[in-house]
């Protein structure tokens, strides 16, 4: 089930989101669609998360710790989606839906901020299961029924993808590409 129509552009977005630098030149035209979504989303962040930017302070408001947390979680999960070649525009919007819900969640319970990356990964996994199928497939087990990795801890810091059948940690959330044998372009 290869659904990555536009892996390169999402990879670019993920790199930008991660602050990795080195954005490749000449993004494909389809990037505009995704960029628009992200732009609209970030407009919303500024209104809800940081407050309406006033004209008198003459500069950008700092990004709140909450938004930094959400930003990091988005970057990690997008990186794993890109690694698994399922990061088309529809899937990116699933990530945004999760981010929106988790923003609310962290606002209710700020101590849960460090759990957000693992929760977003699980939200996206659940949403993909309904619409696309299992993700991410286990790259460790060579035999038997194909199965998805799970996030552990389900509610905790430093989330990892694990194969419960083999009982192994496969990769940190955000580092699935390494476990899958390199970047999505290979
Ligand atoms: Zn496995």
Characteristic key phrases:
globular, binds zinc ion, three-stranded antiparallel sheet, mainly alpha, single chain, 48% helix, 186 residues
Description:
This protein has a domain at 7-134. Helices cover 48% and strands 6% of the residues. It contains six helices and three strands; from the N terminus they run αααααβββα. The protein has helices spanning 7-17, 31-50, 65-83, 89-108, 116-131, 176-179, and strands at 150-152, 160-163, 168-172. A three-stranded antiparallel sheet has the order 1-2-3. Mean pLDDT is 77; it is low at 1-37 and 39-58.
Count, helices:
6
Question: Radius of gyration from the CA trace?
Answer: 17 Å
- The strand order across the widest sheet is 1-2-3
Kindly state the percentage of residues in helix.
Answer: 40-55%
The hetero molecules present are: zinc ion
Main beta sheet: 3 strands, antiparallel
What general outline do the C-alpha atoms trace?
A: globular
| Separation, N- and C-terminal Cα atoms | 17 Å
Structural class of the secondary elements? mainly alpha
**Structure summary, number of beta strands:** 3
Task: Provide the fold topology.
Layout: H1 7-17, H2 31-50, H3 65-83, H4 89-108, H5 116-131, E1 150-152, E2 160-163, E3 168-172, H6 176-179
Antiparallel strand pairs: 1-2, 2-3
The chain binds zinc ion.
Zinc ion binds at residues 138, 140-141, 147, 163, 165-166.
């Amino acid at each position: 089930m290869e659904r990555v129509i536009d892996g390169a552009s999402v990879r670019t977005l993920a790199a930008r989101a991660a602050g990795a630098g080195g954005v490749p030149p000449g993004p494909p035209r389809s990037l505009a669609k995704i960029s628009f979504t992200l732009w609209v989303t970030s407009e919303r962040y500024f209104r809800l998360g940081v407050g309406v930017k006033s004209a008198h302070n003459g500069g950008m408001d700092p990004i709140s710790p909450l938004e930094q947390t959400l930003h990091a979680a988005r970057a990690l999960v997008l990186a794993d989606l890109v690694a698994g070649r399922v990061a088309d525009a529809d899937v990116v919007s699933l990530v945004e839906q999760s981010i929106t819900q988790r923003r609310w969640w962290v606002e209710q319970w700020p101590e849960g901020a460090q759990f957000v990356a693992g929760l977003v990964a699980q939200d996206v996994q659940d949403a993909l299961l309904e619409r696309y199928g299992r993700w991410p497939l286990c790259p460790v087990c060579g035999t038997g029924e194909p199965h998805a990795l799970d996030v552990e801890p389900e509610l905790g810091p430093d989330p990892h993808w694990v194969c419960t059948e083999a009982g192994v940690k496969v990769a940190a959330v955000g580092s699935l590409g390494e476990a899958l044998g390199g970047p999505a372009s290979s």
